[in-house]
Structures are given as structure tokens and as C-alpha cells.
Hints:
The protein has helices at 5-20, 23-26, 37-46, 64-73, 86-99, 114-120, 167-170, and strands spanning 50-56, 78-84, 106-108.
Amino acid sequence: MKLTRRTVLAFTAAATLAGSAAVSQAANSKATETRGLDDLYKAALKEGGRLIVYAGGDTPGQQDGIRKAFEARFPGVTLDVVVDYSKFHEARIDNQAATGKHVADVIQIQTLQNFPRWKAEGILMPYKPIGWDKVYAKFRDPDGAYTGVFVDAFSNVVNSKLMPLGLATTQRDGPVAQLVRAHA
């Protein structure tokens, strides 16, 4: 199998999502999971075979590839991925916590500042998948309430052939008007 970014993401999603089926059994335990994917898959089928993920993103279908790969690997388990901006998922989760009607099994968003608060409020169930000890310590909660799965770096990028470096910050019309802002 070729190890690409997409393969790694698909495997990470599958491992994490399949592992979430065991969360209810591990909710009061801080031990690391010992069951493999096949055993977790069987447990997920017994629990009803549906997994709901809140995923941060821009367009509703952007996680369709992950969903298709997951459902192909784990037939009988439906993966419902709700893609929306993290700030909207935050509001949903806070509302669900206030009403006691939790929907998502997995929360995969970029705004990490909420996870310590949600942990303190008792919203998150601890779960430490196989390989937990291999995750960089600063990217995981010591009790297993949450784990960072990747790091993105955002920076300014300028095509200096189209726009000389000093121009972007000095002119308000001309080439600077053609700039595209990816996230508001």
C-alpha cells in the first residue's frame, strides 16, 4: 500500500472512528485499548453499527472519501459525517450538553480551546487507542479525553512573479485586489 497523506488520514480516521465504538466500555477506564480493529468492528456492529462524526470543514461533501473508505472497510457500520465550520459545531455541542441530548460520537474540529472545557464539564469520554503512547505528549490529554490528530500551519504565500513582495502590503488597488482570502 502506498503511504500517502490521504491513506494516513483514512487509516487514522478508521482507527479512531472504529475505536470510538469501544468508548462506552472504556468510559470509566483510563487504560489503553488492547483490542484490534477487527474486535472493535464487531463491537460496533453489536452497538447498532452507526457512528456520527462532527468534522470541521468548509463543504458538506469534503469527507465523503473518508466515509466511503470507512464503510468499505467496515461493512454494516454507517458513518455519518456532519461537516461544518468548527464554530458552528461548538455551538451545537454546547447546546446538546445543556439539553442532555448528545449526538456526535466523535468530534473532529480545529478549535482545540474547547476540549479542556468540555472535559471539565464531563462531556468527553476518555479513550486511549492502541498506539496512544506514541502520540506526542503535548498533542493528547493525559486522561484520554481528546487527542490532536494533525497540525496545520497557516502562512502568507505570495507568487512573487505575479506580485512583487512589497506590493501586497503597500497598495490597496491593482494586484492586491486580486488576493483571495481562504478563511474568514
